[in-house]
Amino acid sequence: MPETHDHNSHEHDHIHHHHAPTGKNAGFRLGLSLILTLAFVAVEVIAGFWSNSLALLTDAAHNITDVIALGLSWYAIRIATRPAHANKTFGYHRGGILVALFNAASLGLIALGIFNEAWHRFQAPPEVHSGILIGVGTLAFIVNIVTAWIVKEGSENDLNMRSAFLHLMGDVFSTLGAVVAGIIILFTGWNWLDPLVSVLIGGLILWNAWGILRQAIHILLESTPGDIDMEKLLGDLKTIPGVENVHDLHVWSITENMRMLSAHIVTADQPISAGARLQQATRQMLAERYNIQHATLQLECASCNTGGVFCELGHTD
Predict the structure, then answer these.
(1) What is the CATH number of the domain that holds 203?
(2) What are the backbone angles phi and psi of residue 116, rounded to the nearest 5°?
(3) Residue 308: inside a domain, yes or no?
(4) How far, in Å, are 59, 106, 170, 194, 198 from residue 181 at the CA level?
(5) Are 140 and 178 in contact (CB under 8 A)?
(6) Which of 99, 143, 148, 271 is positioned for an S-S bond with 168, CB 3.0–4.6 A?
(7) What would the DSSP string read from start to end of 224-284?
(8) Alpha-carbon distance 309 to 216, whole Å?
(9) Which residues contact 65 (CB under 8 A, 6 or more apart)?
(10) CA-to-CA distance for 270 and 267, rounded, in angstroms?
């Protein structure tokens, strides 16, 4: 019997589901947090030069990384609303990934500059106005707590929002470190604590930059999402009634939240309507267990020998 390779059986199951909600007014909340953080960066820069505190200047540089992270998250939400067209069939979802690559490199350079300046200050620690360091550091701590709270909604179900939230929570601890250093300097005069805190904050910047770079490269290489076990997924596909084998299986991401799958499903020679039901059952399983909302499934009858043309991820006895 002929292979069922018409429109329905070779169906491109790209049902454009709406992704997990990012919370109410996500774009507005991200924009508000960005403005608050950017305004405070200006305050920290002025206070840092006035108090001669590298820790404050370093934290200002660190807060710039917050602005970048919040800006990328806001930009990703905005640009994702642009419709796909003939020249961009996946839309503009990868735009934020390319910007992330550029910003990760910039963050690395900022961190190296901080380490260089800290080294010189370790050699001859200048006097630090600890009162200004404590006051501005406390204000920074409050600003970071508020901005983290603003973007928290939706972070449980959306990686984009979660990355922004975790970024801000990291700053809560770094500003707390600056305040503690200021208090100790006030009572001990240990000015070398100021560049020491700067090195720690610089290390946090470098760590965040590496995380952005690693994830961006992972997505651009169209690697399998880290939380998906391909052998388990293959086994789950084979448990669906009617699926006899699976080959040419690929799973990748367009963005952190948009996962794609393509596969050839070997099944019995059957009517088109039965094949459509099989595809629907497969889509439902992929969405529920693996959060894969976009799948392209090609059905092939068991009697049609592929001749080993496709890479097979599993063999039946």
Answers:
(1) 1.20.1510.10
(2) -65, -45
(3) no
(4) 13, 27, 17, 7, 10
(5) yes
(6) 148
(7) PPTT--HHHHHHHHHTSTT--EEEEEEEEESSSS-EEEEEEEEE-S--HHHHHHHHHHHHH
(8) 31
(9) 107, 110, 167, 205, 208, 209
(10) 8
* List of the chain residues with pLDDT < 50: 1-21, 307-310, 312-317
Same domain, 164 and 31: yes
Alpha-helical runs (H) found in 80-158: 95-123, 130-152
Q: Which residue type is seen at 185?
A: I
Cα distance between residue 167 and residue 34, in whole Å: 12
Same domain, yes or no: 44 and 108: yes
Spell out the residues 6+ positions from residue 255 whose beta carbon is closer than 8 angstroms to its own. Answer: 76, 80, 93, 94, 96, 97, 160, 219
Retrieve residue 205's tokens. 């910047």
Report CA 37 to chain centroid distance, whole Å: 20
Which residue in this structure is represented by tokens 């049902």? Answer: 15
Looking at the chain, how many residues does it have? 317
- Residues 216, 234, single domain; the answer is no
Indicate whether this model's pTM tops 0.70. Answer: no
DSSP type of residue 86: T
Residue 15 belongs to some domain of the structure: no
pLDDT 10s digits, 21-75? 455 677 888 889 889 989 988 888 888 888 887 777 877 887 787 788 788 878 8
Judged by DSSP in three states, 222 sits in coil
